[in-house]
Amino acid sequence: MKKTLSLFLSLALLFSLAACGPKETQAPTSSASSPVSSSSPPDVSQPGVPEPEARTQVNMMVLSGPTGVGAAKLMLDNNLDHTLNDYNFEVVSENAQVVAALTSGETDIAAIATNMAANLANQTDGGIQVLAINTLGVLYVLEKGESVQSISDLQGRTIWATGKGANPEFILNKLLADNGVEAEIEWLTPQEINANMLESEDGVCMLPVPAATALGMQGQGTIRFALSLSDIWEETVGTVLPMGCVVARTEFIQQNPQAVTDFLEEYTDSIVYMQSGDATSSAPGVKSQLVADLGLTANADIAFHAIPMCNLTFIAGEEMRNQLQTYYQVLFQAGPDSIGGMLPYDDFYYMP
Question: Which of 205, 218, 249, 332 is the most core-located residue (most Cβ within 10 A)?
């Protein structure tokens, strides 16, 4: 989706004004989630940007929610013609839409869930490569009450959950099994979970941010974040939890190596900016409004509370390969179908 230029010019002005005000605090993330350091937003003047007709045309698709949030500043810069490439962005809500667009060649670069990236690599016989990890764990267990203090407290409970057939299902099942917990999982839509939680007296659910953030806000203090599955994963498995990544079609990479290099540079800058805190006041800030206007969250209030919990990151190269190979091995052992029946080949990992 593309907003009008006037909207983005207004937002750019707000960015420049915000840069002159008080410094924002660093968003709360785990130490593993910040391999890039926070800094001031990239200079939108960017004198080295080529003329529009000289830029490479890149079709890029991002998922709404955490997997797409890291691209928000890049999307703004692109609409101001301040990027090295000329991007045509589209925001979608389902991994399946991204898979279809990559398979057909409709899009060149995309943000997608890590397990779906492995599935797609197997389906296309090496037709895509993963460029970087962009999101770590964003799954939370929420409850009404104070009874869930550890994963063992889920024993015998009914958990309303979303994400069947994707990362959330595999992660939740793995953690319950490894911790010897037996629970009944009911797979529902986020809307169904919200209704159940708001009506129940002691409901328990699993949701990703920003759906979890929205539910917490609706609960008006009655619904609390009980467990971070990222923390439990690190305690149980001993590694970080890479849930989102950015991939590109192998043919596009081979035909446009400089465009891919430029993208990674600009995407890193975008994530660095979006990582920085947006919660220094009681009202949504510039980044929150930008994320909402781009359709990455339902509104700015949700974005304001969700951005610090999105666990944005940028991990590329050897570290990316090591972390994803470890994660895929865990998923493969839990159920080969979770990543398409086989571990990705080494050339799945983009090594510049």
Answer: 205
Mean pLDDT, the chain, rounded, equals 85
H/E element, 21:
none
Residues paired with 141 in a beta bridge: 206, 227
End-to-end CA distance of the chain: 30
60 φ/ψ angles, rounded to the nearest 5 degrees: -130, 135
Strands 158-161 and 139-144, bridge-based pairing: unpaired
Residues 6+ apart with CB under 8 A from 287: 72, 73, 273, 274, 278, 303, 307
Reported as a single tens digit per residue, the pLDDT across 233-249 is: 999 999 999 999 999 99
Query: Cβ neighbours of residue 172 under 8 Å, at least 6 residues apart?
Result: 139, 159, 161, 185, 206, 229
Give yes or no for a contact between 295 and 89, defined as CB atoms under 8 angstroms apart: no
Is-contact 142 197, C-beta < 8 A?
Answer: yes
Q: Quote the CA–CA distance of 187 and 276 in Å, as a whole number.
A: 34
Could you tell me how many residues make up the chain?
Answer: 352
The confidence score (pLDDT) of residue 220 equals 79
Q: What is the pLDDT of residues 47-64, one digit of tens each?
A: 456 666 679 999 999 999
For residue 54, give both structure tokens: 């000289």
Q: Please, which contacts does 324-331 make with residues 24 or more away whose CB atoms are closer than 8 Å?
A: 324/114, 324/130, 324/133, 324/242, 324/245, 324/349, 326/239, 327/114, 327/239, 327/241, 327/242, 328/114, 328/118, 330/174, 330/237, 330/239, 331/115, 331/118, 331/170, 331/174
Q: Where are the alpha helices (DSSP H) in 32-166?
A: 66-69, 72-79, 95-104, 114-123
